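Raw record, unedited: Alpha/Beta hydrolase protein
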Amino acid sequence: MEAVNYKTLTTSRGFTYSYFLGKPSEETIAELDPADPPLPALLFLHGFPTSSRLWRHQVEFFVHRGFVVIVPDLLGFGETSKPTEVECYRSSLVCKDVVEILDAEVLQDVIAIGHDLGSKIVSRLANFYPDRFKAYGFLAAPYYAPRPKSNIEFTSKLTKKMCGYELCGHTVFYSEDGSDKLIENQLDSFFSVLFPSDPKVRVTHVAPIGALRSWLEHGRKAEMGPWIPPKDMEYWRTVISRDGIAGALCWHKGLVSGVNADDDKPIPLELYHVAKPVLFAAATHDYISPAILGIATTNYHCKTSTIRQFNEGHWLMLSAPAELNVALLSWVMDCI
């Protein structure tokens, strides 16, 4: 993902987004059969605490096969603006920003694919802009239906009853005062527990209430996954050291404070279900977004769904790029 392929756009609400725009070479275009239907553009949306660079394996794979790909640094990440007001991160507003980027590039026939927090925005693109997208892909984190009455305490109790431990203790920590400074002062410890070689580390030291704070306060470190690109990890570390992480944490504060729930209220009930094609790439070793729950959610809310299971953890686009890319390509071609 060369710097020359990055562009910037200041949206109507005044935030500057950095985004990667990948287009196939003339040689690749010449090899395409003109009788085939046109290929859709692919929009990839990353999650916390990464950036557009998370998708480097997918970008290279799809551009070389004739696709246009567009990959923003979402608000609070990478080279995009990083406001520290929670209201700025309302899903409806971020979706509007993303659509303005697509408008600037005159992209209409688009398939949106998200991971982690990016899956939340892809979900809301399906709710707020159903006519703008051809299909939706969700990696590890499934389609997230509107929850106008969502309550983090209830969610914590429910998930502990279902799974034996809370699934959102890290979200609670991210919303607490001073969490940004603790993370910034313990970046090596922070990244090691978010990108562990053993995904079960997240069960004991990320998901439960209070676990991540304790991990960081003690400066503990886990062995990191060998699939992490060193240059990308260094970049993410540099961005947080340079700009802080307070902006990125606002995504989680919106979940805890009720801003996200309030933002979901205008969505009509008939749009809670997704009619267009959906892919859920379930990571069977993701212990914070359990595959079994994601599959159930997808089957319930998505009328035309494809489920693919991967024996991987949360970061399957990094740990199993070849397998994932083939599955994505097969599904994308089925959507054309």
